[in-house]
């Protein structure tokens, strides 16, 4: 960069840089641009424009050349990354060579490498955390204490909920705080039946409608974003042309763009953050490998938000070495990349119900029922730590009578009859972060951009196994009480990470000796760098995490801009 003119450096200089344009990066971009900062968003993948870049959104089943299946030769190209391996969603899948990683132990890493990141892939469930979650590590002594409590983040939950549009009921449960809700999607009769049975038989077990980021009744703020009411098409994973659910592409990024302060640069693979050797405790910019030319370039800013998604953000920080930080940016504690955790979705319980044969559902439901955590809330009551929530869903399949011949057979095939009610539940357990579960950089292998490969080294613990067993027992008990039949409980023994909510490695904490980030998501030792995606999470709770990333990001952006105004950054 030494031969660059002052003007060229100026052209590469912004007030703020955001790494990643997914759920948390979109929020960082919106907040920083709205507060007047010229903001550069660096995104490693291609651009995805809302509406125009959802190629399968309006296709009918017969429009797909292979009726939805992906041919075997194409499958091979995607290797390990088999998520989204359907014709309707293949545009989101990652090719094997794009960014290989080393699984020291089996670990499934699902990524969304395009503008919008996984905000185009997610299931949109958005439950708030409670103090039972923020208190968890302090109560049982595993991992470190969170530097914040529910009261610190509650106003920011409200702030992001109002903009994103979250539907739900006010259920009045301390372990699942209520929010700023649009009208709820309804539970169906079999889900309501389970809810009633639990209310009669237990004091602490509840089924509620899952809170979800769907516009059931858009408000003026949503129309201003150009979004419209969710029509329950349940084709969300193709991209919703109506903007019926929250994504960066439909919501935060266009909002940021409208301010005139956003520069979005796709095909920009962030290599590392540049530490400013002349200004102790500050970074000066970001090194980027251009996705097309593979040329290294530098961009500069006063503040940097790291939002590459949990493991990518770990990788970027680990790769940001300097003479001050030889093992990764801000890593004086030596804990960068450690205490990786995720969610435990291994347990499933399914059953059938003989009742309600006179009822069926009309239309589609993009959400589901939700059973908030009930284990170890007020006291430690089991031989495992923390607890699990559960998703709950019921529906009637259809039965086609294939007997007969000719016109009779045709008539019965064309007139399927409703089958029995099926009910299923999936576990959403908290894993307790331990030091041994970590990511690090491979010392010899590099990806196509010259960046060291990430090594994942994480495994289940005895605590996780015990929790799965308890989930299967308790859900089977509850299903039995509800009169469900043919109950089947199974442990998938899936690899860690399959449960998509990976977190940690750059955890928040009170003490710089045992954490990387302070209560404002600011690196203790490099104060103009903020990490507000899943990497910052000190523990994992049971709730789907993205709403918490959104709230933490908006909160940190507000803090960063105030600090900038006070000339502290
Ligand atoms: C199938 C599925 C269902 C899910 N359901 C839910 C749910 O119901 N509720 C919930 O809360 N969460 C859910 N999640 C998880 C949710 O999607 C993530 O928690 C969320 O998207 C994380 O936001 P993020 O900003 O950290 O990362 P992402 O949204 O993944 O965005 C990260 C962005 O950074 C970019 N990036 C990465 N590395 C670099 C680099 N080196 N340089 C430049 N850019 C980079 C990526 O390309 C990406 O665009 C689900 C995920 C999946 C896959
Ligand atoms: S269910 Fe709603 S959000 Fe999903 S694709 Fe349909 S209209 Fe869009």
Automatic annotation (TrEMBL):
UniProt cofactor(s): FAD
Glucose-methanol-choline oxidoreductase C-terminal domain ranges (all copies): 433-552
Domain of life: Bacteria
Keywords: FAD, Flavoprotein, Oxidoreductase
SUPFAM superfamilies for this protein: FAD-linked reductases, C-terminal domain, FAD/NAD(P)-binding domain
Pfam families linked: GMC_oxred_C, GMC_oxred_N
Residues of the Glucose-methanol-choline oxidoreductase N-terminal domain: 100-320
Database matches in InterPro entries: FAD/NAD-bd_sf, GMC_OxRdtase_N, GMC_OxRtase_C, P2Ox-like
Family: Belongs to the GMC oxidoreductase family.
Name this polypeptide is given: GMC oxidoreductase
Lineage, top ranks: Bacteria, Pseudomonadati, Bacteroidota, Cytophagia, Cytophagales
